[in-house]
Structure formats: structure tokens, C-alpha cells
Write a structure and sequence with these properties.
By secondary structure, the chain is an all-alpha fold. The protein is 77% helix and 0% strand. It contains eleven helices and no strands. 37% of the residues are buried.
């Protein structure tokens, strides 16, 4: 295959090994993907993207201790990178730890406050843990920062409809349909 040729045993291209690992992870061949990711880690200086892919793979496999280890390592190596905070917030929301989930999402938003995605992902977590008013505010902030993102309108429309304001919800649903 292309990746096998690009990563012969003497290859010093961390990106080639990382891409090979990503290709294998997409086909759910995680044991081989991990080998390639760890090979890439041994070569490159900036390990953030590789650790992100490792954390996502471990999360998919429900190997939470290893996912947490990758996130903790990313935070140690690059504390201003928001992705591990998102990942930990998602894990802790799944685990029923609302306090830790919100703490990690707040940190991610603090690091990435000019990006609408930060508010969108925090809103999803807040919605999941039952903090509807805060989630609604974050969906609105996402729309303010990133008005071209249709999923924010859809999510906010659902939350508004759940509060009973169908006329206002319809406005968001129409924007969503016109953008999607």
C-alpha cells in the first residue's frame, strides 16, 4: 500500500507514520494503528496531533485510562492546547462526573474563547449534564462567533422548542435547513 511504501522500516518521516496510523484507525485496526502512532511519537518533536489521535482511538475503544494518560501528557507538553480538555470533559460527562466535565470544558473555552467551536462543544456537554440555560447561552455565543455553523442553529432550536417557544425555534430550524 501507499503507506507501507512511505514507511519502510528505515523511514524517519513522523508524518508518514502518523498518517499510516490514522488510515489503520479509520478501518478499526487499532492494534496496528497504535504501533504506527507510537513509531511517529518517537520521531517527531511536536507530538500534539499524534497524541490527539491516540486519545481519540483509546476513547473509541473505551480504554479510558490510556485516553486520560494521553490527555494528561498533552496538557503537560502543551497546556494551551484545548483539545485534551474537550476530551476529558466528554469522558467525565459520560462517567457522570458533571463537576469535572464542566471544569475541563470551562478550561477549553478559556483557552479558545474566540472560536465558536469551543462554545458549541461546551454547550453539548452542558446540555448532556442538564445545564440547559448555560447550554443555550453557549449555542448563542457560538452563533455569534461562527454564524455559518448550521449545527448551532439546530441545537439551539431544539432547546428553545423544549422550552415551548416554537415560533422562535422555527427561526433557528429554518436557518439550519437553509444552511445544511
Amino acid at each position: 500500500s501507499y503507506y507501507e511504501n512511505a514507511t519502510n522500516t528505515n523511514s524517519k518521516s513522523g508524518l508518514a507514520w502518523e498518517n499510516y496510523g490514522s488510515s489503520l484507525a479509520r478501518t478499526n485496526n487499532y492494534p496496528e494503528a497504535f504501533k504506527k502512532f507510537y513509531r511517529a511519537l518517537a520521531i517527531v518533536n511536536d507530538r500534539t496531533e499524534i497524541r490527539t489521535k491516540l486519545a481519540d482511538s483509546y476513547y473509541t475503544l473505551k480504554d479510558y485510562p490510556m485516553m486520560i494518560k494521553q490527555c494528561d501528557t498533552m496538557i503537560h507538553e502543551n497546556p494551551k492546547y484545548p483539545k485534551p480538555y474537550y476530551d476529558l470533559a466528554l469522558y467525565y460527562s459520560d462517567a457522570g462526573r458533571k463537576d469535572l466535565s464542566k471544569q475541563y470544558m470551562d478550561k477549553a473555552v478559556q483557552l479558545d474563547s474566540a472560536d465558536g467551536d469551543a462554545y458549541f462543544y461546551r454547550a453539548l456537554i452542558l446540555k448532556k449534564i442538564g445545564l440547559s440555560d448555560s447550554a443555550l447561552a453557549d449555542f448563542s455565543k457560538c452563533i455569534l462567533l461562527k454564524p455559518e455553523y448550521p449545527n448551532s442553529y439546530y441545537e439551539r432550536g431544539n432547546m428553545i422548542a423544549n422550552k415551548g417557544d416554537f415560533k422562535l425555534a422555527l427561526v433557528d430550524f429554518e436557518k439550519y435547513v437553509n444552511m445544511a
